[in-house]
Amino acid sequence: MAAVWIVALLTLAAARLTRVLTTDKIGEPYRAFIVRRFGPESLAAYFAHCAWCTGMWIAALATPLTWWAAGLRHHLPSTGVGHPALTLTVSYLIGVLARADSE
Would you state the torsion angle of the CA atoms of residues 19, 14, 34, 47, taken in this order, to the nearest 10 degrees? Predict the structure, then answer.
């Protein structure tokens, strides 16, 4: 049951960080730097403004770190698909939350 709460907290925290980077006023300097550095039509500029894209990278970094820090290393299948599946799930939920937040 603890794992469910950890996944919920991980997802909400990652969604909030994604929003800070892609949408909120506080993230404007980051987005402006990316646009200046790579150009407004660049893939990097697109990623800096895309909650689905940024959420994927945040989930890819935060999921295994959170799982390890919470001491839940042995609570995923040992087939090697546990972390990627959990990362994709968290990433998808971030995107859904971002879409709901923008409506």
Answer: -90
pLDDT digit string (tens) for 10-58? 999 999 999 999 999 999 999 999 999 999 999 999 999 999 999 999 9
Angstrom distance (rounded) from CA 15 to CA 43:
21
Per-residue model confidence as pLDDT tens digits over 68-95? 787 766 666 555 666 788 888 889 999 9
Task: Give the span between the Cα atoms of 11 and 77, in whole angstroms.
Answer: 20
- Is residue 89 within 8 A of residue 82, CB to CB? The reply is no
Q: Where are the alpha helices (DSSP H) in 1-103?
A: 2-22, 28-38, 43-49, 51-69, 82-102
Report the candidate in 86, 78, 81, 92 with the shortest Cα–Cα distance to residue 6. 86
- Please check whether residue 45 is in contact with residue 39, taking contact to mean a CB–CB distance below 8 angstroms: yes
